[in-house]
Write a structure and sequence with these properties.
heterodimer; A: alpha/beta; Rossmann fold; 6-stranded parallel sheet; two-stranded antiparallel ribbon; 11 helices; 50% helix; elongated; B: mainly alpha
Chain lengths: 286, 192
């Protein structure tokens, strides 16, 4: 009997995961959680900006990371607009740039913000390192055109870019990624030009950001769906649904995550009970 | 160009004189690097189709997808055009998300098989994994100094390990870059 605990067919694991995820989605509940200190720092950094300040939102991720990172981006955009900040959006991921533009247009439309006036979508540029360094001198020189009402116009002529020449005119950058792209933001935009930076990351890359958080090069960190849930809850609590226009998204995903994590813990428990009950006897699957 | 870019980091005078020009030239070179990449991809898959390789069908799908996407993008003349937007929203984006979502199933299966306390090391790994899993879900266990246990694991032991890796990587990159610039390392152009 105990031997069977060690060799559960992977198809049974897959079916159990599917059932639990569907059950979590069906629950559709918001799980109340205490905010992590790292997420609180992100909220505080955006909160410290004033009306008319410029916030740069970098959505450097492809659609595969959207489930974890879209809620962070959406919350950051709602929060920045609620602070009456001017928002500039970039994406150094060729697969993520159209998604970034679509999201900021949708959020802005909800809140009555005007493209070119309250925000500008700078878009995508290849060779992130050279672009990030050049942005320290001349942002409009890197992103020479933006699209307003379907027409390309010179970036420097856009109202949202008035008074914004380089990083020194940007109060805060909020960068989301599921890869190592945060390193280039830290190394060039922060270390070389002193841009204040907060980040959001998928669970797979978040551990790499802790050294920069400890050194102060990153001022706040959103850790995967949990971080997104913490942040959007703080924005909604501070500004309400009406003023922020933000609906809980990551907070609802937490119920799915919670049940999925419990299932994984259950399987880890089963494997270890089986292992200790049959030590030296059963042949285990690797 | 690479040497000039490196020098601009250390010399404010060179940076002021050439920094912008160097950065823009590197961006242009980066964009043109797409061309040999596309040519290489087309040659590789065209050869597989011509030889009726066992993966010829997938090669054909790759080439059709490549030319269709480029063609529609050129027709739209914009990343936000209707044709390109349709491909992005209805094919590229759902496919990427679907493939990534398989991870949930594989991670559950891998956790079941890997996190078994067979030795002291695997026991430590299993305990750390359970604490972080619990903390990321809902239940944060108390850790040293008033922090949560998963927060302490991430910001102390894991961070120390990440710093070690980062320093090792940086030293390795410096050494490899120096070897490439001096012509001692030619493996990247197919020579030993």
């Amino acid at each position: 009997m105990m031997h069977k605990l060690l060799n559960i067919d992977r198809r049974i694991v897959f079916v159990a995961v599917a059932i639990v995820i569907l059950a979590g989605m069906a629950l559709d509940t918001v799980v109340p959680l205490p905010a992590s200190a790292e997420a609180q720092s992100v909220f505080d950094a955006v909160e410290a900006t004033g009306a008319g300040d410029t916030i740069l939102v970098a959505m450097d991720y492809p659609p595969s990371s959207a489930s974890e990172l879209d809620p962070m981006s959406r919350a950051a955009l709602h929060h920045a607009f609620a602070r009456d900040a001017t928002v500039l959006v970039v994406s150094f991921d060729s697969g993520g740039a159209p998604r970034a533009a679509k999201m900021v247009d949708a959020v802005a439309a909800e809140l009555g913000k005007v493209n070119g006036v309250d925000y500008a979508v700078l878009g995508y540029k290849p060779d992130m390192t050279a672009a990030l360094i050049e942005m320290g001198t001349d942002i409009a020189g890197v992103f020479t055109e933006v699209t307003i009402d379907g027409e390309p116009v010179p970036t420097e002529s856009v109202e949202a870019m008035q008074g914004v020449a380089n990083y020194s005119d940007i109060a805060l950058a909020v960068q989301m990624t599921g890869s190592k792209k945060y390193e280039e933001w830290v190394e060039y935009a922060n270390a070389r030009f002193g841009l204040k930076l907060v980040t959001g990351a998928t669970g797979s890359v978040v551990t790499g950001q802790y050294p920069y958080l400890a050194s102060g090069q990153i001022s706040g960190l959103l850790r995967s769906t949990r971080g997104a849930s913490d942040y959007e809850t703080m924005v909604i609590d501070a500004y309400g649904h009406d003023d922020s226009g933000l609906e809980p998204d990551a907070s609802k995903k937490m119920s799915v995550l919670f049940m999925g994590h419990l299932l994984i813990l259950l399987f880890i428990g089963i494997a270890n009970v089986g292992h200790w009950a049959t030590r030296g006897g059963a042949k285990e699957t690797a | 160009m690479v040497v000039l870019m490196a020098l601009t980091v250390f010399s404010p005078r060179l940076d002021a004189a050439y920094g912008s020009r160097v950065n823009r030239n590197i961006q242009i070179l980066g964009a043109f690097a797409m061309l040999p990449a596309v040519v290489g991809l087309v040659r590789l898959h065209a050869a597989r189709i011509a030889r009726k390789h066992s993966t010829a069908v997938f090669s054909a799908v790759t080439l059709v997808a490549l030319f269709a996407t480029v063609g529609v993008g050129l027709w739209d003349r914009s990343l936000s055009g209707p044709g390109f937007g349709w491909i992005y929203g209805n094919i590229y984006s759902p496919l990427q998300q679907a493939v990534f979502s398989f991870l949930a199933f594989f991670i559950a299966s891998a956790a079941y098989r890997a996190f078994r306390a067979r030795t002291l090391e695997t026991a430590l790994l299993t305990v750390a994994a359970v604490i972080v899993l619990l903390g990321n879900a809902v239940i944060s266990l108390p850790g040293p100094g008033g922090a949560s246990a998963e927060g302490w694991l991430l910001s102390v032991p894991a961070m120390a390990m990440q710093r070690g890796i980062a320093i090792g990587l940086a030293l390795g990159i410096v050494a490899l870059s120096a070897r490439i610039l001096m012509g001692l390392e030619r493996g990247f152009v197919g020579r030993g």
